[in-house]
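#onboarding

Welcome to the new folks! Below is a worked example of what a typical request in this channel looks like: someone posts a single protein sequence, and someone else replies with the predicted structure as tokens. Don't worry about understanding the tokens yet, we'll cover that in week two.

Example request:
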Amino acid sequence: MKKELLYEGKAKRVYLTDQPNQLILAYKNEATAFNGKKKAKILGKGRFNNLISAYLFQYLAEHKVSSHFIKQLNEEEQLVERTEIIPLEVVVRNLATGSIVQRLGLKEKTVFQPALVELYFKDDSLDDPIINDQHALLLTDLTEEELDLIKGTALSINQILQPLFEKAAVRLVDFKLEFGRNQDGDIILADEISPDTCRFWDMATNERLDKDVFRQDTGDLLTVYQEILNRLEAIK
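Example response:
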């Protein structure tokens, strides 16, 4: 049973339930970019992010990746295990685009082999700065072994998801993950995996099928999110 609102972020609302170890995530119909500096209300967006994220969490569970996801409740809500979110954003990059091109002067579409892992400190007031391992250990309660576990899990998720999206004729360019500690102290995957947190390109045309169409005003967000959902459902 959904109870009072616990927390509201840019993309989701988090509600308490009658089970102390379970929460409800409600996906919002709001798009944000550049750490909330650009905003818009887009009816239907929450549904797509919920359905796509649920699909991917279930797929990862089939491949032995533990996450907070328990089940999809309806078209906009999920039941999840309660976790204490670790204030790190873990970004896995397969191709160079976006901020890394600007920061390092890399050529667009440079292939990273092996995939590149970056850490960002999750703090909107600081615009989520990029940090190194030593910073991560300083700013969180992680041990070196736990940080290695998180980075290794992120790379494993990349290896699991890349073939899935290739079947859907989609290139997994990069994606952001978040992790949390559950009530047993175990570190598990949390937050969401959706076109809000991933870059998806059509393998034939390099057409953007993610939130970049909103960031860059180059297309209709609902159309490309629907396309990702359609392609995933077609390969079930």
